[in-house]
């Protein structure tokens, strides 16, 4: 089980997220048979963040809607990324916090051996803070899970 250093899925998910030209970045990744998307979400409710990312992944064909293990893998990658954004406590509105995030979802095989299968990564970047304009700071999170 050896990672292909050129195909580190977490690194590429973050680069896609922070890219000024995500469409061009995605074209390069598609050459390695990877799928991905970028989107935005803002909310005081963690479940709305999860729902927005799941919806984008389904609409862009990154996961199959009728295969539970794919939705399950995506869910865990999202929650792991949210742990980074929220510093370990995935709570927003209930403790008067709100987020404004850009997200990237990336699916592919980061290993040299194709039998290792596909993985999914979710990266989040944006702001978190009190629901008052100017009372936020930057935040970032990354979650990776096997499918």
TrEMBL record:
Sequence intervals crossing the membrane: none
Keywords: Activator, Histidine metabolism, RNA-binding, Transcription, Transcription regulation
GO biological processes: L-histidine metabolic process; positive regulation of gene expression
GO molecular function: mRNA binding
InterPro entries cross-referenced by the UniProt entry: Regulatory_HutP (IPR015111), Regulatory_HutP_bacillales (IPR023552), Regulatory_HutP_sf (IPR036482)
Alphabetized HAMAP family for the sequence: HutP
Function: Antiterminator that binds to cis-acting regulatory sequences on the mRNA in the presence of histidine, thereby suppressing transcription termination and activating the hut operon for histidine utilization.
Subunit: Homohexamer.
Family indicated by similarity: Belongs to the HutP family.
Protein name: Hut operon positive regulatory protein
Natural source organism: Siminovitchia acidinfaciens
Gene name of this polypeptide: hutP
């Amino acid at each position: 089980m050896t990672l292909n250093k050129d195909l580190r899925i977490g690194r590429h998910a973050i680069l896609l997220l922070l890219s000024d030209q995500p469409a061009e970045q995605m074209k390069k990744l598609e050459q390695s048979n990877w799928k991905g998307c970028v989107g935005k979400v803002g909310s005081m409710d963690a479940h709305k963040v999860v729902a927005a990312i799941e919806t984008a992944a389904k609409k862009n064909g990154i996961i199959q809607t009728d295969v539970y293990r794919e939705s399950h893998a995506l869910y865990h990658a999202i929650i792991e990324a949210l742990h980074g954004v929220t510093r370990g406590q995935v709570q927003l509105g209930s403790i008067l916090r709100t987020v404004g995030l850009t997200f990237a979802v990336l699916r592919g095989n980061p290993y040299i051996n194709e039998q290792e299968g596909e993985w999914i990564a979710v990266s989040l970047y944006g702001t978190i803070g009190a629901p008052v304009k100017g009372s936020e700071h930057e935040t970032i999170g990354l979650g990776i899970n096997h499918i």
